[in-house]
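Model it.
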Amino acid sequence: MTFKGEAIAYGAATIVNAIALGKGAALGVDLWTKAEVILTDDPNIIQGEIISDSTEDTSLIEKAVDRVFRYFDLQKEVGAKIKTWSNIPIARGLKSSSTAANAVVLATLKVLNKKIDDLSIVSLGVDAAFEAGVTITGAFDDACASFFGGVVMTDNLNRKLLKRNQIPENATILFFVPKQKVYTANTKISRLKSIKSLVNIAFREAMEGNYWTALSLNGFIYSSVLGYGSDLAFESLEAGALASGLCGKGPAVTAVVTNDKIDEVKSVFQRYDGDIIETCINHKKAAVIEK
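Modeled.
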């Protein structure tokens, strides 16, 4: 075993939120979380620290390491200290949990000098998310988009990757990020189940390759049931965005924009109280950081 493992995983944006249907679609974006895992000789302690937001709960990253230890039956032999750094705001719908879990699982595998297949890596992170109580469906779609990049369509309930595609368009991704945090654990599931048939329409669009139609439609559907207004998304579309809609369970909003429309859509975002993140579509896989 080596002394320290480091890894990076990339962000994701919602195309179709899987909470209502159990199936979802997501898009890799060029935001990141880096993780460092150091082994200790105390098997009773797994201690996490989120450097970029020290007030946040560290349960997820600690559960992710524990899941890997248990996978290899090492939980009684070693402990760990974990650090993560990220440019992804937490609890805004921007997939911070899925990205962190992927990075931590990869870093743990590195420090243990172990290798498993990609979907098993993703599943360990999903298991950790369930155990930490930060997910409703397991967010397998978000986790796959974070890990593999590109566009993914998934069956979250059965953890199946249905499709994975590259996007040839050179589009910019803009996120509008309100100040308030919304934690998945606080989302009312019963209301979301009532929109299953509507979300299925958006999912079919995504499966047929109409990603931007699916993203906007999904956003309007979920915004209505979660109590968010859709003015910003509508105004973004009017300003020339290819797609715009709620990301995850919110409150962040995604806009997919061609380069000649960036300023127009940004001007829409600037009318509202929040931060703007500009990034691009990511096609890179999550990876161990070699030193």
